[in-house]
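Researcher: We plan to redesign the surface later, but first we want a full-length starting point. Tokens attached.
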């Protein structure tokens, strides 16, 4: 069983969260368990960009202050965490070990336990502070994966572009899913 945490922050890009959760729902039959946590601003952005209730996707949703969540501890068997989208504020907190909410704490746990942490950052342009924070997280073992869709393969819809990012995230999380052709494939 692969235990994953999906965290969402208040950066633009809630459709990435929704698309990832939809893909994980399809992958559930293949022994993937998912826990979800959203910052308060992520909930606001979700209602602007997606609407509806994230709980409708069927995964347990933890309160952002719930330090009793299993994945707040290194003793849990959570193997990987993705923050999608990751705001510059949360990036900064993770880079500096400020675990004042569940997202920061869970990310801190992933880094200290040398487990997989993927940050799908969303901001442009970047200041030197953002770049230095990405550097710090990378040096600590995290993967910074900016939300940067690819256009090869003749993408036609917004969903195609979202999937080009989500597919790469799933690869890094180690979730086997059927997805579109990779570079060099017909
Ligand atoms: C609609 C909306 C869009 C935002 N987009 C971004 C963004 O793309 N990148 C970013 O770093 N912050 C963005 N912000 C600002 C963050 O939400 C803000 O810095 C917040 O404190 C981040 O906290 P959180 O990471 O705990 O959610 C946005 C805020 C709102 C309301």
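Model: Full-length starting sequence:
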């Amino acid at each position: 069983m692969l235990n994953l945490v999906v965290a969402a922050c208040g950066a633009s890009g809630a459709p990435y969260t929704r698309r990832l959760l939809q893909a994980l729902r399809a992958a559930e039959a293949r022994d993937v368990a998912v826990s979800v946590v959203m910052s308060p601003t992520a909930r606001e952005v979700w209602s602007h960009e997606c609407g509806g209730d994230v709980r409708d996707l069927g995964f347990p949703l933890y309160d952002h202050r719930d330090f009793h969540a299993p994945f707040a501890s290194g003793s849990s068997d959570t193997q990987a965490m993705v923050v999608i989208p990751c705001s510059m504020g949360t990036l900064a907190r993770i880079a500096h070990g400020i675990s004042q909410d569940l997202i920061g704490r869970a990310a801190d746990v992933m880094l200290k336990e040398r487990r997989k942490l993927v940050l799908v950052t969303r901001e442009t342009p970047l200041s030197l502070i953002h770049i230095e924070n990405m550097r710090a997280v990378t040096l600590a073992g995290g993967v910074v994966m900016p939300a940067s869709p690819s256009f090869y393969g003749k993408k036609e819809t917004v969903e195609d572009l979202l999937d080009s990012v989500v597919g790469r995230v799933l690869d890094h999380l180690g979730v086997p899913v059927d997805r579109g052709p990779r570079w060099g494939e017909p």
